[in-house]
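Researcher: Checking consistency across runs. Here is Aminoglycoside phosphotransferase domain-containing protein again:
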Amino acid sequence: MPRRPTPSSSLSHFLTPDTKVTTSATLATLWASYGSILSLTATHPTLLPTPTKLVLKTISPPPHASSDDESHLRKLISYHVERYFYSALAPQLEGRGVKVARSFPELLLPQREGNTGVLLLEDLGPAGYPQPAGHVLSSITGVKAVLTWLARFHATFMGKVDEHHLIPPPLEADLDRIDKGIWANGSYWYLATRQDEYRDMLESGEVEWLEPWVEEVDRLLHDPGAKGRTVLHGDCKAANIVFSASGTECALYDLQYCGAGVGVVDLVYFLGTSVSGRLLEGGGDEELVGFYAEEVRRAGGLVEEGVIREQFEWAVVDWMRFMGGGGGVGEWEVG
C-alpha cells in the first residue's frame, strides 16, 4: 500500500511540543472511516533520544454515527478497550516472553474534542519483528511460535480477569465507563452479538446438527467460573501477527476485542483462520492443542490439559456456529 505524506502541522494536534517528527506518512484509513493509522519517525529529549519509528492511531468517528447503532458502538468501545489494554494490561506482560508494542502515552496531548482516542505505539518492524505473517501460516515453527505467545499471554491473566471492569455487549454498555475496561466476552463473534446470523443459520437448515449445542456451548465458554478463565487477545489471526527475522518468535497487535474468556477461543480462531489445513490433518490439530496446553503449564497456567481439550471441543462448535451463520461450514476455514 503506498504511503501518503502527512503534514507535520497536523501531528501537532496530537503530540507534545517536545516530540519532534522528522518523517510521517499515512498508512491506512480505519474501517468505515473511523480514523487513520500513521507511520512516523520522531525524537524526544528523554523518551526517544534517537530517531524512532512509531505508529500513531487516531480515532475520530464519522459525524453521522448513531449512538444506538450496535456496529458503531462496537467500534467505538473497541478502540477504548485497546487503549486500556496498552495502559493497564501490557505492563504485566513484561518479562513473560509475550511481545506487544510499547506505548508512549507521555508523548500525547490530552484528547481533543471530537477525537475518541489516540494511540501511539512503537513500530514492531524495527523493534525486531520485521516479517508479516501473511494470510496463511504453513510453517509449523511459526504456528508453534504463535501458540507459545498465546499460552504465555493467557497464563499471565488467569485468575486476574475480575481486576478489570468488564464491558457488556455494545447495546448494554454504559458509555461513561468504557474508558477503563475490557470486554466481558473477548472476541467479536460470540453468540450474543450474532443473533441475526444465528437465526439465518437455523432457517437455512444446513447445519441443524449444531442447534442442540449452540446455546449450551455459549454458556460454558462464557461461564465466569470456567477453569482457566483469562483475558483473550480476541482477534488472533495472521493479519495481526509479525515474526522475528528467524521466524521463531512473534508479536501480536490489534487488541480491540480483548476480554474475558477461556483461552481456546483464541486458539480455535487462529487455527480456523490462519493455519494451513495441511498442518491440521491427520490429528495435527490435536497435537497443536497438546502443544498449547503444555506451553500454558510451562508458563504457570493452572489448568489441566484435559480441561483445555474439552474446552477446545466447545470452542470448535462455537466456531462452526459462527461460520455457519456466515454462509458456509467446512472442517476449518483454511483448508
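Researcher: Does this match what you'd expect to see?
Model: One thing to look at in this run: The first strand starts at residue 4 and ends at 5.
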